[in-house]
Structures
1.
Amino acid sequence: MKQGKILIVSGPSGVGKGTVLKELMKRHPNMRFSVSATTRSPRPGEIDGVHYRFLDKASFEDMIARDALLEYASYADNYYGTPAEPVQQALEQGIHVILEIEVQGALQVMSRRKDAISIFIAPPSYGELRRRLYGRGDTAPEVAEKRLKIAIEECSHAQEYSYTVVNDNVDEAVQEMEAILLAESCRSEFRPIHLEEEL
């Protein structure tokens, strides 16, 4: 069985990451999302091990001490992070693991896992991203403006990723993601050639 690959996927709010990844996973059933760990309390309807792995603060800090996280961060007095062991288990089963994470977490994983494939999903333009954020209808103007400012900062890190996919058309973006996966699977280190001279 071939080893699975880690796909680090980042991009600003409103760029359509979820839509692209949902379609990609529909076409490739050997993919799954990594389940993050957090110390925040579950929200109504959230299931432990499905939406998040809910941990107490001591357990999370023990994982930090044991270097058992691919990345972690603290927001609003809660920890969030990616446990390394479940990711490695999935990879060994030939499953591609998607880490849909923000830029700072992505950079942490890139530094720890040189074998990870990093993809930044970008909007076709600032104007289109603005249209998408405002077009949702459920985002207050001040929130949308804040997200646009964050998006500019996030997009400034795109060059630190191995690949950039511009989501102007979902089907084309998915095709580009598939092309990246195909190219990565053809890398020489993953395809040793064994030829023996005939006697």
Note: Strands lie at 6-10, 31-33, 37-38, 53-54, 69-75, 78-83, 96-100, 117-122, 163-166.
2.
Amino acid sequence: MITCAISQSNYLPWKGYFHLIGSVDVFIFYDTADFTKRDWRSRNKIMTPHGLHWMTIPVGSNKGKSIQEVALPNGEWRRNHLETIRRNYSKCPYIGDVMELLAPVYEDESIVNLSKFNQELIMRIAKYLDIETTFRNASEFNILGDRVGKLIAMCDSIGADVYLSGPAAKDYITTEFDDIPTKLKWMDYGPYEEYKQRTEPFSHHVSIVDTIAILGKATKEHIFG
């Protein structure tokens, strides 16, 4: 039995994103989906001594482009983001692990588009967490159809028996999976235990960078139980 999930690549996603990845056999990066500005594709939150802080890649609006077509900007944002993470988590026990995971991607200027940048970070973190899921890209498939039809077509292309979807898709998935071989299941995130963050009140909705900096390899047990 093959279980599949499909999602756009997010910037340094929260732990639930990796929970979804680790719950399936094949994870398809939806790199052909339209880029949406001011969304998780180009930004995420970390915890600082002063509370939550957004880190945003300044890619602009990129109206009408897919995420694979969004170019990374020039400038100091790569160095600034790395330094922001290093500075805010410098006293955490596993900041060394975080920097070893992230720095090679930020410092690789041959990575020039957002999709590739996000994917490299996600795959390195998944490997650190010993997640053995196979990664694919939507651009590998010649898919047509409406919003849900494309999801079904990708599932068909890899022979998926089950499509595991995040709950946000309940806004647009209705009965399309009812009478087809691929069965729809909904992802149930958590509940996750709290750990000692740098600042109160505690928030689960931060980048996994926060979790790894504090828990290290135990992040896997924190996510999957």
Note: The chain has one domain: 3-224.
3.
Amino acid sequence: MKTIHLGLIGFGTIGTGVVSLIQENRDLIENRLGARLNLKKIADLDITSPRKVSVSKDMLTTDAREIINDPEISVVIELIGGYEPARTFILDAMRNRKHVVTANKALLATYGNEIFKASEELGVDIGFEASVGGTIPIIKSLKESLVANRLRSIFGIINGTSNYILTKMSDEGKSFDDVLREAQELGFAEADPTFDIEGIDTAHKLAITLSLAYGKRVKLEDVYREGIAGISQQDIEFAGELGYRIKLLAIAIQRDEFVEARIHPTMIPLDHLLANVNGNFNAFHIVGDASGSVFLYGQGAGMMPTASAVLSDIIDISRNILKGVSGRVPARSQSENVIHEIMLLPMDYIVTNYYFRFSAIDRPGVLSKISGVLGENNISIAAVIQKGRRQAGPVPIVMTTHKSKEMDVQRAIKVIDQLNIILGKTIVIRIEDEKL
């Protein structure tokens, strides 16, 4: 039986999971692959701390070059994260004609154009299933299963930390700060949660997804992004009263020659599948012109779910090695020679539904003044909730709209927030609801 030698750079949580899965499912993998996977060398700056798996000390090194320059190793697994030295390690491994598997979403979202081009020019494969959606096979689905489809839309819940926070706020009535603190204590959120709660992690994943779905190069900075830090328990409760649940959504929609690409808190009808994706789970709702609606759901992070995705790439590449081929499925589903810059629809021209929460003085005529400004800006009201004052201070007025243009909404809110009847900044949350 042929042996395929692997080298692992990064022996942290995910790296430990990969080693564990190779060890525990060795016989199953050999039977399905028809070859042995031999993890020959593991590189990490820390090779002394105990892990949950046992490996020979001879396998460990602090020098990744021992893997990159080893002629026997065919597949390099990069799991150190970050931009450098990960980028250099990957490119140097490719120049040494080694295939690469990575889970590094930030690197691919930023330097993917360079890395994918190098993969094609050098005739080596790169697997990155674990970079988006954890164990969910979104990359393979876009590259292979849905390859004949024009993708009309992709809606994704693709950050487990944000989804956990919003779920707890919705189900248990807790504040954002309290749930964030709880998530950090449980290890779902980092000590510095910025990448998760500000949508940066989600933007990395959406940029990769866009390039696969539409065969285009994507500039990360062009993807519109809002985080969840501004979501209050009051808005969670109003959403429920209106028949919605708030999720941090990654949205891609084909609009003729343009593509909408945006990330922000979104109200979704309670009967939509995505509204019921809770905790730290991830999901994708994809609509293709031929496939119709496709729903993918699963663990979006974690040691073993991510390790499962890494091993799927390793086995795919190993099958190619056994057949003596590479590049059978292009990294982004089509040759890099025909990929060009994506044309993203400017956010000002997005058309969707909106939720507004105004903090207003409780006196006659307030509602008509607000409605007048909205009407002057081509915004049609779908529903209104006006609460009576329970104590001194402003009262909330909530409105939802029919389809409106972002440019008109921002212009109207700027005017409304300057009215002397408004006592605080208006809260704006977008709604995705075809019934409106």
Note: DSSP finds 14 helices and 19 strands in the chain.
4.
Amino acid sequence: MKVSPFLILPILIFLISAGRAAGQNPPAKSRPNIVFILADDLGYSDLGCYGNPYNRTPNIDGLAKKGLKFRDAYSACPVCSPSRAAILTGKHPVRMQLTNFLVGERRDSTSPVFPANWRKYMPPSETTLAEMLKSRGYQTSMIGKWHLGGADTTAPAAQGFTYDRVIGRNGLDYYNYSITSRGKTVFEDKGTTYLTDRLTDYALEFIDQNKAQPFFLYLAYSAPHIMLVPRADKLRYYFDNYEKFGGRYNPNYGAMIESMDDGVGRIMAELSRHQLLDNTIVVFTSDNGGVGLPELGPVPTRLDPLRAWKGHVYEGGIRVPLIFSWNGRIPDGTETTNRITGTDFVPTFLEMLGIRDQPVSPDGRSFYGVLTNPAKPVDRGPMYWHYPHFSNQMGRPAGAVRVGDYKLVELYETGKLELYNLKEDVAEKNNLAAVQPDKTRELADLLRKWRKEVNANMPAPNPKYVQK
């Protein structure tokens, strides 16, 4: 059959227009998936790839071998809820007045100050990374520990997550817990299914259901948060090697980390099974530092040479492991000393995905350039911490700022200033405030100016305080 020449031109125009439209809106799977795995209270030095000789973490170490390991990565706060809010919004938690973990009520009647007033949820008005990606055709999931509000308006479903499996009842008990979805219980355990394994099961289910379209998987493990309840079949190795290290490491803690590492391995195998590795960004990090004192049992971990632990603005409380892996895009087996903090994930993902029309918080800085060229020094600018509370881990109200190699700590109870050169003294043992007064004054002014700009909530005077 002959086609009229009068029809050829319209057909060609249609085909060309369709081709241009396809170029403007690439196929769904050309947009990379994001798998963001967040550990709970995992210390900076708890992984094999960060020098731990006791804990077995071959799968997480494998991410580092196939990707980029950060030496100077930080959480935005030394406790969980604020740091999680920063990861999801790109905003410093002080702007949300979310400066403590949701049930943090500790105070010290002998202190000259009471803890600051604060908001016990992430405001529903905040725009999360999940909402940003969902509006661009991504399927989104939140699995595990939420800890940013339990009301309908503050739950994951109201913050952009299309699939949610949230730890409900008994979040600290790995064999006696519940899982909820849209506020309704979908699973209850009575001692049969290890919580870490169950969360991994949900992650695999989500990947399998959404393998044909771009997805964002936010997997927030509860491990290795206390209570230290491991799987029994994981313990033999750690008991056998306990004396080899002079009792320095906790067997239960190591076994819990190994179960989480198993989960990472299963997720990577699932991505491989669906041929998704080349189109998936995998991130592994922790919400804050590890616990370095006996809390609900023996000491979980040691953070040497870092000072202090969770609940403190010293390095042990805020420096965290961070690994980025993306086959063919991020150089294998690399590491960087470029500094980043929890507010920087959102702008980095937006730049990676080419999203330019989304307003970004002034607190975040994209480190996309570091991922492609880890050796190139990047000036992150000042990083701030604000914790006007008394933590369960004996931390006291304080703030801090880091600029370059220098870090200043201000103790809110007394106004005392401490200055450290982290390049020379990562253990924060040598307070330089008296010998470098100009640098101390410079950073103290910067920290106080920042607190004023963000309207930081500050501790209140204790009217019953009697100075000794």
Note: The CA atoms of residues 250 and 298 lie 8 Å apart.
